[in-house]
Amino acid sequence: MDEAAFSALAQPGLQRLRAYDPGLDLVALRQAHPGLVELGSNENALGPSPAAVAAAVAALDDAHRYPDPIGGGLKRALAAHHGVSPGQLMLGNGSHELLMMLGQTFAGPGLDVLASQFGFAVYALAARAAGADLVQAPALPAGHAMARGHDLDAMAAAVGPRTRLVYLANPNNPTGTWVPATALEAFLARLPPTVLVVVDEAYMEYATEPGLVSAVGLLARFENLVVTRTFSKAHGLAGLRLGYLLAAPGLVAVLERLRESFNVNGPALAAGEAALADTGHVERVRQANASEREALADALRARELAVSPSQTNFLLVGFGADAAAVEQGLVARGVVPRPMAGYGLPGCLRITVGLRDQNRKLLQALDEVLA
Ligand SMILES: *Cc1c(COP(=O)(O)O)cnc(C)c1O
């Protein structure tokens, strides 16, 4: 039997699902291009905190033991960091796992999951894996100041009696755009309390706009709010797979029924605690990203390219009909961006903000390709 034949045996929701596309085969590309400039996955250009790496290595001495099944140490540290109680926290094997579990737990056949057009790809996976229907609210137009960003009015208008879950990234991937905390609060106030709103803050540490602050402060007012965070981006621990969510204790208790007992490994738990404590490292990451993000956006705009506003560690750049050729030309020169056709943006590439030298190599390769 081939894939189509086995697919017919799968749950109805999975029959219409396609696997997450992780991008190019980087292992082969690294061999072909020593010094490959990898700007396709929004990884942290400065890497992890050395203290986090040391903690993970030390934890390997206990590799024969199961990890703490509740991650108590890390949860207490996160609770103190965010000003919540440990019972409001749940840890995940990356926030991807938590986003999927939210769908498995609260969505299902006959229910709608709402996201924005140009929302993060995992939301569609989470909806369909649960057998629910994905409803996409139209995004703001490309010409809007917050180009292709979330249109909260359109999202609120798309909420109906079947809507159980709303996924919304702030700031958003792949657009880089954001909604101010005040707008998010007004949006939450418009929804019935039985509609759960998941605010994915994977990039929140990179935010520099004063109006863009975490929704964690809204948890006390809205019991239907879930905030997800990750150690993969600003903490530079994508390879260890560690994320978490914050929500009402009752909601966390229901999600816990589905959680695999040892979903987060020991080195990740140890690294997470050390990374959270190394506030100096996160601050250096934030500042380096903010200045390089601005410089790179300016350099791209100087080449008459359309660059969306970004509060993340990447830029969405418009190349029009040339996008696929530009991508190929960059990869041939050892620079890897992320094509966006899968997001319905065939004219755009998403480019992670790298170190200064990497950004220089990107611009040099781009000038050769565009010449
Ligand atoms: C990178 C990213 C995540 C984080 O995924 P992890 O599973 O925690 O590595 C979550 N949401 C968005 C929007 C992202 O871009």
> Which word captures the global form?
globular
Extract low-pLDDT stretches: none
Number of helices: 14
Could you give the count of β-strands?
A: 13
Which CATH-level-2 architecture of the largest domain? 3-Layer(aba) Sandwich
Bin the strand percentage: 5-15%
Strand order of the largest sheet: 2-8-7-6-5-3-4
| Structural class assignment | alpha/beta
What kind of sheet is the major sheet? 7 strands, mixed
What is the H/E string? HHHEHHEHEHEHEHEEEHHHEEHEEEH
Provide structural commentary:
The protein is α/β, with parallel strands linked by helices and 371 residues long. It folds into 2 domains: 23-42 and 280-370, Aspartate Aminotransferase, domain 1, CATH 3.90.1150; 50-278, 3-Layer(aba) Sandwich (Aspartate Aminotransferase, domain 2). It has helices at 3-7, 12-15, 26-32, 50-59, 72-82, 94-106, 121-129, 152-158, 181-190, 249-256, 266-277, 279-302, 323-332, 356-370, and strands at 37-38, 89-92, 112-116, 133-137, 163-169, 196-200, 225-230, 243-246, 306-307, 314-318, 335-336, 338-339, 348-352. It has a 7-stranded mixed beta sheet, sandwiched between helices. Strands 9-10-13-12 form a 4-stranded antiparallel beta sheet, with helices on one face. α4 (50-59) runs antiparallel to α11 and α5 packs parallel to α11 (266-277). The site of pyridoxal-5'-phosphate has 14 residues, from α6. It comes from Arenimonas donghaensis DSM 18148 = HO3-R19. Homodimer. Belongs to the class-II pyridoxal-phosphate-dependent aminotransferase family. Histidinol-phosphate aminotransferase subfamily. Keywords: Amino-acid biosynthesis, Aminotransferase, Histidine biosynthesis, Pyridoxal phosphate, Transferase.
